[in-house]
Model the fold of this input.
Amino acid sequence: QVQLVESGGGLVQAGGSLRLSCAASGSRSVINVMGWYRQAPGKQRELVATASNGGTSNYADSVKGRFSISRDNDKNTVYLQMNNLKPEDTAVYYCNAEMRFLLGIVHTYWGQGTQVTVSS
Done:
């Protein structure tokens, strides 16, 4: 069983920056993809950014150029640097880890979430 522990959320003014961290523990296999999703009140959870263990990154259009995801494979930790934050970035941010096995089997894990609030 993989546990994900997030940190780094908080309250920031528009235009400010925050850095989220997520450390995975308990994994006996390679974590293929680690990433961040977010959910604002009344909205569905949406992808923010993902990073594969091979170095490929993927971003939502709404955060491109402002957010940067990075990953330390040795530490099984993923980071999300968020710059030029906007009020619409306010949400609970969830860490996600995905492990892929043979026959198309995928195991997905979620963190408990960390609140990011951007004031105008």
The mean pLDDT is 96. The CA atoms of residues 70 and 79 lie 5 Å apart. DSSP finds no helices and eleven strands in the chain. The longest strand covers residues 91-100.
